[in-house]
Each structure stands twice: as structure tokens, then as C-alpha cells.
Design brief:
The protein is an alpha/beta fold. The protein is built from 6 helices and 10 strands, in the order E-E-E-H-H-E-E-E-E-H-E-E-E-H-H-H. It has a 4-stranded mixed beta sheet, covered by helices on one side.
């Protein structure tokens, strides 16, 4: 079984099955590889189950082909792709629940659909942030949408919040989790016990949402270059 070793100042061995089904083993300095091999062997069944789950998710959320009827997700809701005549590039979410694009968009579908996602994210995330901020009594200075690949959101020391546009592909309850997470960072900058106590106060099931997010991040890998 292949795996990546990361040594650090920790006390225990930790196994991490990543969303691409690879295995990372975090170990303390000074521990022998014989011990690591035995530890992995003991956990082999658990590791293989997790890897199979991520491989299945990878197939389920495979890169898009931009074909008629293919589903694109906006805030957890699927929108089948519908291609309509048109020499100008136009894209929208139709009243009957479809992602409607003109044939012109098929010349560079990744470009147009990604652009539309970013526009949707800017409006949807900004509005939802404002709603949750009012509900929980927070105020941020500004909101920006970026193309971050490894972080759903971030909060600066000056009270500015950033979100990855891919966040809007997730279900609404996961979007809310990320937003509340960053709102709490306006008050508590680190991930201390106090931070998680505040998260539990505002969102009692935040641990379950965080776990879901880690296990389903592959669903945001929706676009491919053409």
C-alpha cells in the first residue's frame, strides 16, 4: 500500500485518506517505520473502505463533458444543461430549473460556465453572508469571491472575508457552515477551544457538517479544459 509520510512534533500516529483516495500518514519524530507498517496493516480494512468511498465519489462527480442534459449544481440543486440556438454567448438559470446556454458557449464551455458560477457566487454568497451576519450579530468589512482551490473561505485580520466560488456547488447547509465558520473568525482568529465552543453555540451540528465537507470535496471538481 502506497502512502505519504509527514513527520512532525506530534504524539500519535494519524491516518488521513484524502479525497483523491491517497493515504497520508502523520507520525512523530523518532518513530520506526516497522511500527508505522504494523499500524497501517492493523488499519488496512478501514483504509480500504475509505479509499473505495472516495473513488466512488470521484466517479459520481467526474469532470463535466458539457453535454445536453448533464447536471450542474447550484447551492445543492441540480440544473440540467440545455443548449439553445444563439450566435451570442448567453447563459442563465431558467425558471423551469435548467442551466440554459446558447450554442456559442460551446466554443469555450468551461470559460462561460465558470464565469457564470463566479457571478452566481458573488450574489448568492454575499446575500447569504449578510443574512447570517444579521442573525448572529456580526459585521464584516468586505466580501470577495476568489478561485482558491484548497480553502473554502478565509477571514483577514481587518475583517475582510473571502470565499471560493466553488462553494456554491455545495448543498446550502454546507455553504452556511463555511459562512458561519468565517463569521466566528471575525471574533476569534484561531481554532482554539473558545472558537469551537462558539461554533457549537451558533451551529450545534458543525462537526457533522465539517466531516461531510471533508468527505465530499470531490464534488467541486466539475470542470475540465477543452
Amino acid at each position: 500500500m502506497k502512502y505519504k509520510i509527514i513527520r512532525s512534533k506530534r504524539r500519535t500516529v494519524a491516518l488521513q485518506v484524502n479525497s483523491d483516495a491517497t493515504l497520508t500518514v502523520r507520525i512523530p519524530y523518532g518513530i520506526s517505520m516497522e511500527y508505522v507498517e504494523r499500524f497501517i496493516a492493523d488499519k488496512r480494512s478501514w483504509i480500504e473502505k475509505k479509499q473505495e468511498k472516495f473513488r466512488t465519489l470521484g466517479i459520481k462527480h467526474k469532470p463535466k463533458q458539457f453535454s445536453e442534459g448533464e447536471e450542474f449544481i447550484f447551492a445543492g440543486k441540480p440544473y440540467p444543461l440545455e443548449v439553445v440556438p444563439g450566435i451570442a454567448a448567453r447563459i442563465s438559470l431558467s425558471p423551469d430549473g435548467k442551466l440554459r446556454i446558447t450554442k456559442k458557449c460551446l466554443e469555450a464551455p468551461k470559460h462561460y460556465i465558470e464565469w457564470f458560477y463566479k457571478q452566481y457566487a458573488k450574489k448568492h454568497l454575499t446575500n447569504r453572508l449578510a443574512e447570517l451576519a444579521r442573525t448572529f450579530g456580526y459585521k464584516c468589512n468586505s466580501v470577495k469571491i476568489n478561485s482558491a482551490k484548497t480553502r473554502w473561505g478565509s477571514c483577514s485580520a481587518k475583517g475582510n472575508i473571502n470565499f471560493s466560488w466553488k462553494l456554491v456547488i455545495l448543498p446550502s447547509e454546507m455553504i452556511d457552515y463555511v459562512i458561519v465558520h468565517e463569521l466566528v473568525h471575525l471574533e476569534i482568529k484561531d481554532h482554539s477551544t473558545r472558537f469551537y465552543a462558539r461554533m457549537s453555540e451558533l451551529m450545534p451540528d458543525h462537526r457533522q457538517r465539517e466531516k461531510w465537507l471533508k468527505e465530499n470535496s470531490a464534488m467541486t471538481k466539475i470542470l475540465i479544459a477543452r
